[in-house]
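Input/output pair, single chain:
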Amino acid sequence: MAPSVAARPTPEIEALAAETCAGLDGDEAKARALLAKVTSIVKQPNPRSAASAVATLLQEEGNPVHLYSALLTAARIEHDLVWSTDVSPECDPDQGLPFPDLARFGKRSQHKHGERDPGKGSAPGSSMPHGSPLAQA
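Output:
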C-alpha cells in the first residue's frame, strides 16, 4: 500500500530517518527513536492538520502522525496509517449504525505490521485495543 500523500517521504525525511536510525538494530529500536525524534521536533502538534510530513518537519507544527509515518516509510519499517473513530469499539454508542458521522473519524492510529498482538497500537504507551490515538504518536 502506498503511503498517504501527506506522509510521503521526501529527501529531507529520508535524511532525518537515516540520521536517526544510524547504528540502531531492529525495527522496534528504530521506531522508538523515530517517535522520540518526532516528539522533539513537533512543537505544536495539531491532529486535525492536513499539513504534509515535510511541512510538519520544517515548520515544527502540524500532524505528527504524518511525519512519523513518513519516517517509518523512509526507514523501511512496515506500518499502516489508518482512520479510527474517537471511541473504543467496545464503548461505541452507535455500533449498530452502518455509517457513523464523518466527524467521528478525526483521529489516526499507527499499526506496525508483524506485531504479536495486532490489536495494539505500535506507539509506546498505547493502551487502546484498537490502536494509539494520533495525539500519542
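The CA atoms of residues 27 and 72 lie 9 Å apart. The longest strand covers residues 79-84.
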